[in-house]
Amino acid sequence: MQRLKKISSFCVIALISTAINAQSDKVPGEAIGLGQVPSQQSISKDRLSKPTGDRWPQVVVTNPPLHSLVAAIMGDQASPRLLFSRQLSHHHTALKPSQLRQLNGADLLVWAGGEIERPVEVVLQKKTIEVDHWSAESCAGQRLLLVSDEGTGTDPHGWLDIDNAVCYVNELVAQLTVIDPVHQGHYQRNAARLIEQLGLLDHRLAKLFKPVSASYMGYHNSFRYLLSRYGQAAQAELNLFNEQPPGLRQLLSFRQQLKATGVACLIADSSVSREQLEQWRLGSGAQLLMLDPMGRALQPGPQLYFQLLTELAEQLAVCIAG
After folding, report:
1. How far is the CA of 257 from the CAs of 147, 249, 269, in angstroms?
2. 8 A C-beta contact, residue 301 and residue 61
3. Distance separating the N- and C-terminal Cα atoms of the chain
4. Is 310 in contact with 288 (CB distance < 8 Å)?
5. Which of 4, 150, 172, 209 could tie 32 with a disulfide, CB 3.0–4.6 Å?
6. How far is CA 203 from the centre of its chain?
7. pLDDT in tens, 180-229
């Protein structure tokens, strides 16, 4: 597993770092602590009026997993807002006027990045809105996976790797402290607890996948960060790039492989057509498992990230094992 950068002097909390390091032989990822790693989208200190001790910053987050991490850092005193409803697609849904107003009134926008949230990228590029922003895809030192072996595009579902989530937490603390230095200690303490909890989650998921040794096949597989972290490799995959459907030759080859390999599990993102995949599955003996990497059916909040990864891991482990 990739080692992320250790905590900088900005946010050193020795007690928590020691506790996590003591568990480093138990979890697959290296123990990593709370740090300050300002991204290339660091916030301008001049434009914003700083929140006072009586006012918490207005933070808007685009998707449920990132919203969960931000909510855990900000704590009970402040509640980040979720930009997209759980029923809407993040890929192509144009922003409504009410959402644009919400962004214009925010102190900080937290979003996944242009690979998966094109509508947000468009309004930022066109300067339709004026808001300081940080994207998960810009987090320095995170593990990135390519969409295909041809090297076309980056898989944007990086939050499903717990090391990447810690990378996000580190940078988000730095971003929040810039716009709200009054509550710096509050953010640091919450983030330290969050990182410790992420380490424990990592350990539980590693134990869950340890006995699983079978392979699987994936179509539009949004779960590779999670699966590869715990040693699960696909027999074959057919992943979509920029939402472009695969060609007929690719589809026929994939269907033939599914029947020939005898894998027990065909994994797919819930956004693709179940009817088509059910037709491919006939005669293969593979179970079709369609999951949502966003956790849109879950209740938003600090616990969503933990619930999401736990439920995904449990279902994936059972399906792959057959």
Report:
1. 19, 12, 19
2. no
3. 26
4. no
5. 4
6. 18
7. 999 999 999 999 999 999 999 999 999 999 999 999 999 988 999 999 99
DSSP string, 55-107: ----EEESSHHHHHHHHHHH-TT--PEESS-TTS-TTTPPPPHHHHHHHHT-S
User: Can you read off the two tokens belonging to residue 322?
Assistant: 């057959």
Domain residue spans in the chain?
9-206, 208-321
Higher pLDDT, 11 or 241: 241
Q: In a 3-state reduction of DSSP, which class is residue 134?
A: strand
DSSP lists the bridge partners of residue 289 as 267
| Token output for 134 | 């940080």
Q: What phi and psi, each to the nearest 5 degrees, are found at residue 261?
A: -75, -30
Residues 164/168/171/175 CA torsion (nearest 10 deg): 170
Question: Which of 110, 304, 106 has its CA nearest to residue 194?
Answer: 304
| 271 pLDDT more than 70 | yes
pLDDT confidence band for 152 (50 / 70 / 90): low
Query: Which of helix, strand or coil describes residue 165?
Result: helix
Structure tokens at 78: 């402040």
The per-residue pLDDT for range 42-74, each reduced to its tens digit, is 333 333 345 556 789 999 999 999 999 999 999
Does domain 9-206 correspond to CATH entry 3.40.30.10?
A: no
Are 9-206 and 208-321 the same fold in CATH? Answer: yes
How far apart are the C-alpha atoms of 215 and 234, rounded to whole Å? 6
For CA atoms 275, 304, 144, 90, give the dihedral sign. positive
CATH architecture of 208-321: 3-Layer(aba) Sandwich (3.40)
Res 1 pLDDT > 50: no
Task: Name the one residue in this structure whose structure tokens are 């079978």.
Answer: 214
